Structure formats: structure tokens, C-alpha cells
What does this fold into?
Amino acid sequence: KVLVVEDETDFLLPRVEMFKVMGYDTITAGTREEALILVRTHPDLSVLVTEVHMAPMDGVTLRGRLEGSS
It folds into this structure.
């Protein structure tokens, strides 16, 4: 299962479609905070796709928070 984190629909939809075509189940989050919740409630996630620059929490910070919560 893939979690795609993106706050702009124009970028979110093509990424989701790409993973679906490749056969992956995909869930989405529009904010980093929403992503943190989804990671905790979907332990079957294998891949996190996020843009690096997104306010108020960038992708690098999100990764660090996820690594710290495991």
C-alpha cells in the first residue's frame, strides 16, 4: 500500500493514478499531519511518497517524525 502526501490536487491525482496502474492500493493525505495519522492507522503501508517542500512541515521533517515514532 502506498501513501501519497500532496496538498495540490494537480500533482496528487497523477501520482495516485501512476501507482494504481502499477497495481498498488493507494491512500492519500493532503497535509503532513493527516499523513502521520494515516501511517499509525494503516500498518500495512509499504511506501511513502511526499513532496519535499510543503508548509508547515516539509517531507524531511515528516520522515524524521515517522522514524521517531516507530
Notes: The helical segments are 9-21, 32-41, 59-69.
